[in-house]
Amino acid sequence: MQLFGRKEPKRSPGADEALGLFLFDAVNDALGAERTLKAVGYDVTLVAPPARLRAGCDLSVALPRFEHVGAARTLAEAGVHVRDWIDDAEGTAEVCDLVTTVDFGEWLMVRAGNMKIVVEKATGTIVNTSGGGCPDIPYLNLALVGRRIDEVTRPKDLGYTLCGLMLDRAYVEACAQLDGRDACAPAGGDAR
């Protein structure tokens, strides 16, 4: 058994700039906002909102405050529901970027947060997903297990919760670890 280790957390975009936050009522709205804003070139980060504003497994989108008006317009035009904007991102926590990879010989297990994905290395078949307590986990498991990693839609595009987001982080790392193959599906679609 070989333990590949942990990745260092990435530095947030705009870390040296004053950040603000878009707040959402649902995780899938935050994921949709991130996808929409990145598609048109905004440099955004998914973060946990400050503790005083949290109501469970919340996500918010952080970006430089000076980009707020244009980003809000983009989200409104895309039909993404935003609950609120706050000018102060102090107290936010970056979504966990620590990923652990374990090589079990025939299988590769990747863990991100409390979500895990296990892939048979010879075939690229996903043999297991586990972790989390979010309501979309059974659906994600059914959509992924038994299929090749290069034939599935990314968990981030299938799920609607923070668990789905963390499973996506594990999925992306598994793709990168499989002999350097570019096996992952791009966000928003199936694998090539």
3D architecture notes:
The chain has 192 residues and is of the alpha+beta class. It folds into two domains: 19-94, Alpha-Beta Plaits; 99-177. 27% of the residues lie in helices and 24% in strands. It has five helices and ten strands. The strands form two sheets. A five-stranded antiparallel sheet has the order 1-7-8-9-10. It has a five-stranded antiparallel sheet with strand order 5-2-4-3-6, covered by helices on one side. A hairpin with a 2-residue loop joins strand 8 (107-112) and strand 9 (115-120). The two termini are 31 Å apart. The model is unreliable at 1-15 and 188-192 (pLDDT under 50).
Proportion in β-strands: 15-25%
Terminal CA distance: 31 Å
What is the residue-averaged pLDDT?
A: 82
N-to-C order of helices and strands: EEHEEHEEEEEEHHH
Low-confidence stretches: 1-15, 188-192
Primary descriptors:
5-stranded antiparallel β-sheet; Alpha-Beta Plaits; disordered C terminus; single chain; 192 residues; 5 helices; alpha+beta; disordered N terminus; 2 domains
Quick overview of this protein structure:
The protein is of the alpha+beta class and 192 residues long. The chain has helices at 27-39, 68-78, 137-144, 155-158, 162-177; strands spanning 2-6, 19-23, 45-48, 60-64, 84-86, 93-94, 99-103, 107-112, 115-120, 125-130.
